[in-house]
Amino acid sequence: MGSLPLSADCLSDDVETLPLSEVSNRLGVSVGRVNALITDRQLLAVRRGGLVLVPELFFDDHGIAKHLPGLLSVLHDGGFDRDETLAWLFTEQSDLGLTPAEAIHSHSAREVIRRAQAEAF
Fold it and tell me: How far apart are CA 70 and CA 47, in angstroms?
């Protein structure tokens, strides 16, 4: 797991996170597959207290939140690295009153993707 590409832990202490074993159970896949999702930028993870953790907001009742992979791709293609992407996802958009990670679960999801496109280029 030492080669797993992780983001800097810029998450505030109140952001709920899940260990890889719980992500694995939630998605119904192996921990190895979860590692592949992180490596392939379909998920982002941090190391905290010796554990690799994924923000709980990256999931919904059906698995990975519908708009997350596309949003991560837009930011990556626009030049954001993993650290910048995670920081952006958890920085509140004052006019929305939400972070992009929260907004992908709301009617503001498409607006957040549009903003990511504008910021990335």
Answer: 24
CA atoms of 29 and 61, how far apart (whole Å): 15
pLDDT bin (cut points 50, 70, 90) of residue 1 is: very low
Q: Three-state DSSP class for 49?
A: coil
Helix or strand or coil: residue 90?
A: coil
Select from 17, 24, 8 the least CA-distant residue to 101.
Answer: 17
Cα–Cα distance for residue pair 32/49, rounded to 1 Å:
21
Token pair recorded at residue 66: 């519908």
Residues 6 or more apart whose CB falls under 8 angstroms from that of 50 comprise none
Q: Tell me how crowded residue 112 is: count the other CB atoms within 10 A of its CB.
A: 24
SS3 assignment, position 110: helix
pLDDT digits (tens, 9 = 90+) for 43-101: 999 999 999 999 999 999 999 999 999 999 999 999 999 999 999 999 999 999 999 99
Predicted TM-score (pTM) of this structure: 0.92
**Strand 46-48 to strand 51-55: parallel, antiparallel, or no bridges (unpaired)?**
antiparallel
